[in-house]
Design a protein that fits this description.
Layout (H helix, E strand, L loop, with lengths): L1 E4 H6 L1 H9 L4 E5 L2 E6 L12 H7 L7 H7 L1
Length: about 70
């Protein structure tokens, strides 16, 4: 865990983001009080090859969008 002030975070944002990518957690303080924590998002998501492939895997609805909205 790495702690910096707001001023330091503003001045060294790129460096701090590299540390986060490497697995570190960065805490940001203002006047000695913790105000934020920057943490990596974990595993990276695999991109979908194409929208057509994604649509093909989704279940088909029996009603149209207009009909569904009217029910709501």
């Amino acid at each position: 865990m790495y702690t910096v002030t707001v001023a330091e975070a503003k001045a060294r944002l790129s460096e701090l983001l590299k540390q986060v990518e490497a697995g570190e957690e960065v805490m940001i303080t203002r006047r000695g009080k913790l105000i934020a924590r920057i943490k990596g998002i974990g595993k990276k998501y695999k991109p979908v090859p194409s929208l057509a492939d994604l649509r093909g895997k989704l279940p088909q609805s029996k009603s149209s969008l207009t009909e569904t909205l009217r029910k709501v």
